[in-house]
Structure formats: structure tokens, C-alpha cells
Amino acid sequence: MSSDPWAERAHVFVDLHYGSLRGRVRTHVIDRHLAEHLPAPPAHVVDVGSGAGNQSIPLARRGYTVTMVDTSAEMLRRAAEALRDEPGAVAERVSLVEADGLDTARRFGTGLFDAALCHGLVMYFEAPGPLIGALCEATRPGGIVSIVAKNQATLASQHAHLGHWEHALETFGAHHIVNRLGFRTRGDTPDGLFAQLGAHDVAPVAWYGVRHFSEPWVADDPNVGDEAAMLAVEVEASRRDPYRGVSRLLHVIGRKLG
User: Fold this and answer.
1) Are 49 and 13 within 8 A, CB to CB?
2) Rounded to whole angstroms, how far apart are CA atoms 106 and 205?
């Protein structure tokens, strides 16, 4: 296997996951949350673990200056390919940096960014504290830190929705699961994430769920009827109890103090 563990999985992740209905739900719901909390453009956003830019490129279209950071050369190659289809002004607002997220503050400077995003990376870290610390350190006072993680409370749902009942039984109460890409991943709780942010002077602002009603749809593109209406329902569920607490992903947002 390549030294880039995503090189052989990029097609599955970018084309099949983000290109599927479940992927579109994820991107849309998180984007709606960001619209409520990010400072106005042209604020400078760093997206750590940016992948191919599914969340970053739409922000650049809205006028944000975006620095995409990823360890995967293949993911960044795909981001560069996507940017070639964008207007020049959009592409010029995006910088692609192959680097480890742990080096964010050291590489770019302390307090440089108006917002730090880390969507879907912390679950790959057994101990995400240093990564979260790097995000917080890179964010200016008053800036936003946005983290998307797996919901520890619903790890068993992946097996259950696929009909793997014995595996689902084994996963109740677990903290880890092997995802569909074959990686061992870890679940979090809102309180746990906010505690780690608080250790770096980042105060809680809000937390949401991501993918509740659509999570069982393991088919690539099930017939859901009016997709726009379905997305509106997912956004509403992301904000409400009990739905957000039993969604597949968690989205927590904090503000840097000082």
C-alpha cells in the first residue's frame, strides 16, 4: 500500500461517499451550521483534514479565504482538480497545504485564523487532545473552532443498518468501530469534546447531530422523493432533541476566549 493511506481509498471516500445521498446530507447540514456561526467573509478559515474540499470549496465560493490542510497528497490532488472547475476568483482564495494537522499552529502561527474546522478527523486519533489543542492555538481570540466527530452513542448503528446483528451487539457500549473504509475509528460525546476545547480556552457555543433520518439508507441513492425537503428535515433534526443525540455524527462549535 502507498505511504498515503488515502491514495487507494480516495475514490470510495470522495466519489462514492460524498457523492452519495448520505454524503450530500452530511455536507449540507454542516454547511447550514457553519452559516450560523462563522464570521463574515473574507474571514480566514483553516480546514484541517480537508480531504478533497467538499466543505472548503463552498466556503470559498461565498468569499472566505480558505487554507486546506491534509496529510494526503491524493486528496489534495483531487481538491486541485475540483478547483480547476471553479471561477478564478474562487480558486485564488484557496491554499492547499500537505501537512499534519498537529503542526497547524507551528506552521501558520498562533491566533492566525478566524475559524478552524476539523470535520471527520478526530475519530482517527486514539487521543485527539493534541490535535484539538493545535486547532485552538491556531484560532484568534473570538474565533470559531468547529469539530465533527463520530457519535459514540450510535456506533452500533453502522452494523445494525447493514443487518450485521452480532457485530451490533458487540458494539453496544464500545468506543471504537471499524468504518466502511477499513479504518479503526473512535466515537466521542459532546461533553467530552467541549471539555477538551475548554482546556484550551474555547467556550461552548452549540452542538448538533448530523444524519439522523437518512443514516439507515445504505443504498447509494435511495428514492427519497423531494430531496430539498428531506435536507430541510435533516437540518431541523440536527438542532432538536432527541434526534441530535442519536444522529450518526456530532458537530460541536466553540469560541476562543481572550
Assistant:
1) no
2) 26
- DSSP string across 227-242: HHHHHHHHHHHHHSTT
What are the CA-CA distances from residue 148 to residues 81, 95, 222, 230, 253 (Å)? 25, 22, 25, 21, 9
Residue 219 has pLDDT above 60, yes or no: no
Q: What is the mean pLDDT of the chain?
A: 92
Q: What is the DSSP secondary structure assignment for residue 134, as one 8-state letter?
A: H
Give the number of C-alpha atoms closer than 13 A to the C-alpha of residue 214, restricted to the C-beta side. 31
What pLDDT, in 10s, does the model give residues 78-100? Answer: 999 999 999 999 999 999 999 99
Three-state SS at 2: coil
β-bridge partners, 47: 68, 117
- For 116, half-sphere exposure in the C-beta direction (CA atoms, 13 angstrom radius) is 32
Q: How far apart are CA 59 and CA 44, in angstroms?
A: 10
| Burial classification of residue 69, based on how many CB atoms lie within 10 Å of its CB (0-12 exposed, 13-18 middle, 19 or more buried) | buried
The per-residue pLDDT for 46 is 98
**Cα–Cα distance, 80 to 98 (Å, whole number):** 12
Question: Which triple of cell numbers denotes residue 140?
Answer: 484568534
Cβ pair 238, 209 in contact under 8 A: yes
**pTM, full prediction:** 0.93
Amino acid type, 197: L
Count the alpha carbons within 13 Å of 13 in the hemisphere toward its beta carbon: 21
From residue 25, alpha-carbon distances to 139, 206, 227 in Å are: 27, 19, 10
Element (H, E) at 179: none
